[in-house]
Design goal:
This protein has about 200 residues and is an all-alpha fold. The chain has helices spanning about 1-20, 25-40, 45-70, 80-85, 90-110, 125-130, 135-145, 155-160, 175-195. The radius of gyration is 25 Å and the shape is extended. InterPro entries: hAT-like_transposase_RNase-H (IPR025525), HATC_C_dom (IPR008906), RNaseH-like_sf (IPR012337).
């Protein structure tokens, strides 16, 4: 059972970290606190991985938004840039500097800001909507990440030693749809098993 848990944890902890970091009541400090409990002295390696994923995600959204702004904004004539800076790549340098300053200030500012007080009636999507002008890139990430529904069924299935049961509280699918999904899963597994088995007696 411990091996199952370790395998499941290593495959799922990274996707779970990003939504938690986007929670203003927890942020990165909560992830660091929990990872220390989970990994002990090996926490730095996993924490570095989480930060790298967060930075890459922020950089991807930042690039998309910057490109959109560049397309909508009036473009400065190339000759004017050359005459002003006497450098044909001056506009590129300005673009990079602006982008790097924005990236560093927004992400670092959010992580360094004090966590929000935990309350039972806290609405995280509303919080990001109200702070979208302060954190434009992070708010876009939050809108995409936090609306993804999560399920505990997969984790319980991984550790359950009994039969796989779908209760009335866990599924709103009709019985025909559930039966079709189960059959499809069995067919896919069967095809994978045959695909890994070399053919015998078939020669062309």
């Amino acid at each position: 059972m411990q091996k199952k848990f370790d395998k499941y944890w290593m495959e799922s902890y990274l996707p779970n970290c990003i939504p938690v970091i986007l929670g203003p009541r927890f942020k990165l400090c909560f992830i660091e606190f929990r990872l220390k409990q989970a990994f002990g002295p090996d926490v730095e390696r996993h924490l570095l991985t989480v930060k790298e994923v967060l930075d890459n995600l922020f950089e991807e959204y930042s690039s998309q938004m910057t490109d959109a702004l560049d397309e909508s904004a009036p473009r400065q004539k190339f000759d004017e840039v050359v005459n002003e800076e006497n450098d044909p790549l001056a506009d590129w340098d300005q673009h990079l500097n602006k982008k790097q300053r924005q990236t560093a200030s927004e992400l670092a500012g959010y992580l360094e800001e004090d966590t929000f007080t935990r309350t039972e009636d806290f609405n995280i999507l509303q919080w990001w909507h109200l702070h979208s002008s302060k954190y434009p890139i992070l708010s876009c990430i939050a809108c995409d990440v936090l609306v993804v529904q999560a399920s505990v069924v997969s984790s319980e299935s991984a550790f359950n030693t009994g039969k796989r049961l779908i209760s009335d509280y866990r599924s709103r699918l009709c019985s025909e749809t559930v039966e079709a999904l189960i059959c499809l899963q069995d067919w896919f597994r069967c095809n994978d098993k045959h695909a890994n088995t070399p053919d015998q007696g078939h020669y062309y």
